[in-house]
Amino acid sequence: MSVSDAQSQTRNDDAGAPNTAALAATAGAVEITGKVPRAVGADRAARELELRRGEFELAAQLGHIRTMTSAVATTAGSTAGVTLGRRQVTRLEIDRLRAAEGFPDTLRERVRTVGTAEGAALMPVSPGRFAQLARSGFIVPVRFYLNRYRTVVWLYLAEELRSFAAREPALLAGRFPRPLRAGLEAGEDWRPRNWRGRRIGQLLHESGDPWERAAIAGCVLDPVQLAELVADPYERAYLEQLRPDLGQGRPESEAARTAVQRLLVADHPDEIQWHRASLDTLLMAARRTRPAPRPGGSLPHAGDPAPRYEERGRAPARAPAPAPVLGHDFASGREHEHGHEPASEPTGPAGLASESTAVAHEPAHEPPREGGRRGLLTRLRVRSRREGDRLHATVRS
Known about the structure:
Elements: H1 3-16, H2 20-33, E1 39-40, H3 42-48, H4 53-62, E2 68-69, H5 70-75, E3 87-90, H6 91-98, H7 105-110, E4 113-114, H8 116-122, H9 127-135, E5 143-146, E6 152-157, H10 158-167, H11 178-185, H12 191-206, H13 210-218, H14 223-229, H15 233-241, H16 254-264, H17 269-289, E7 328-329, E8 334-335, H18 355-360, H19 376-396
């Protein structure tokens, strides 16, 4: 494992660790007051903490502001509705932050983000050296945006850059290590990968629902890989419903959406394997808790068995068979009576009889039945034979 691998793994582990201090503070508040503490919405909390909305969201993601789900806050009498993923802040947490020394400047400095030029001046190193450190995985971005040229601009926490400069002075000057230079020359760039890992760790830290955690782990996998791991279409639909939005906002132009989408999907074999293993583990835990909801039935309960499948990617066994179309088997070109299925034949990947099998089972000359219909393939074959017979008669004459 390289230095950047170890550092990336450590950051992801730290981001996904349980916030025991926040849980203990909330539990203590509940024990003292005898009920869930009153909470306010994100907009009001940001105003009272004198933060911009983006600063508040980043502070909550980093754990500087302890938040709670709106479902718990609603029990305490909040007017906000219960919305998946919506967070609120208790009055005790707001009072704690406002009473801290240096408020609000200290809190703002914790979430201050800088680009490459300002970050290089903070460390201090040249912009080129800063880019080398970031692409090698030593510096993990916390956000990104697209400039007017649709170029990705990465943002870093100023507090983390100062800490790195004090902790690793040997990497700020001199020749860059040879293995890292080889990776940079080959086009390696750890910034998207590290950002995805950091963001997923933050979301897993905030979520306690098993199915939502599984959706978080699988949100960076492309649909093909997700279908390989989750054969049940209802489970895939449920994961898609709970899928978080990793990006900040929705770009308006198609080119911008394409550029952002490339950053949201895992593209390295090691990263893909890591997220596949995480999804498999979290999905098994979610199935043990409750099955995914299915149409036409009541909501699933904990302990209900999940549906079983004989083979990946196949439809559920209880799904009804498709009704016959016009009493004709289009795969083989033969008719059959309504209510009677044709003789079973080997099928291809899509459940249709293969062309070679259909030809082998077809008689050499099949006259049309009275009251029946000729299939399209039958009519084409008969027409082809008639034209061939006429051509042969013409040549002989």
